[in-house]
Design brief:
- By secondary structure, the protein is of the alpha/beta class.
- It has a single domain, classed as Protein-Tyrosine Phosphatase, Chain A (Alpha-Beta Complex), CATH 3.90.190.10.
- It is 37% helix and 12% strand.
- The protein contains six helices and five strands, in the order E-E-H-E-H-E-H-E-H-H-H.
- The protein has helices at 21-27, 48-57, 75-87, 100-110, 116-125, 134-146; strands at 5-8, 11-14, 32-35, 61-64, 92-95.
- It has a five-stranded mixed beta sheet with strand order 1-2-5-3-4, sandwiched between helices.
- Strand 1 (5-8) and strand 2 form a beta hairpin.
- Helix 3 (75-87) crosses helix 4 (100-110).
- The relative contact order is 0.20.
């Protein structure tokens, strides 16, 4: 597993993980894992179908929200991340190939409920220089303003306290 970078006290990102990493992730205190890698993105990568039971065996909740670079700001992706942040107990570890996609999708989801300045400040503090995404994040904030009923209430740091899983996946 690559280095883990905390964006908030309850949300961190990392790069690719293997099935053997889930026990270590749990030992580090994480309660849930969000996989932002599409299955088949790279030969030999851990698939969502393999990752889910490995995650559950380690006592973690698992969500698969696959994201390719052309889908990062789409409603299905941002909405799924927003929902995950609202429902999962933290701390949550999200991963993709390098961690950057996971950070960007987090930022898009958080921009629907927090100021873009605050989101970019959290990213900068975590040493992600993503200010070039300001316009995209502002569009997510605008979406929240014209569709507020579609957004559930969330805790201040982006994570609520019920460990629900979706997509037909539940912790064993």
């Amino acid at each position: 597993m690559q280095d883990i970078v905390y964006i908030t006290p309850n949300f961190a990102v990392t790069g690719s993980i293997d099935a053997d990493d889930f026990a270590r992730i749990a030992e580090l205190g994480f309660k849930a894992v969000i996989n932002n890698r599409p299955d088949g993105e790279e030969d030999g990568q851990l698939s969502g179908q393999t990752a889910a039971p490995a995650s559950w065996r380690a006592g973690l909740i698992y969500r698969h929200i696959p994201v390719n670079k052309l889908e990062m700001f789409t409603d299905p992706v941002v909405g799924a991340m927003h929902e995950a942040l609202a429902e999962l107990d933290g701390p949550v570890l999200a991963h993709c190939k390098s961690g950057i996609r996971s950070a960007i999708v987090w930022a898009a989801a958080r921009s629907r409920t927090q100021s873009v300045d605050d989101v970019l400040a959290a990213l900068e503090k975590a040493e992600f220089d993503l200010d070039f995404l300001r316009d995209d994040l502002e569009q997510q904030a605008d979406r929240a303003r014209w569709m507020p009923a579609a957004l559930p209430a969330t805790a201040a740091d982006g994570l609520a306290t019920n460990g629900a899983a979706t997509n037909g996946l539940a912790a064993a």
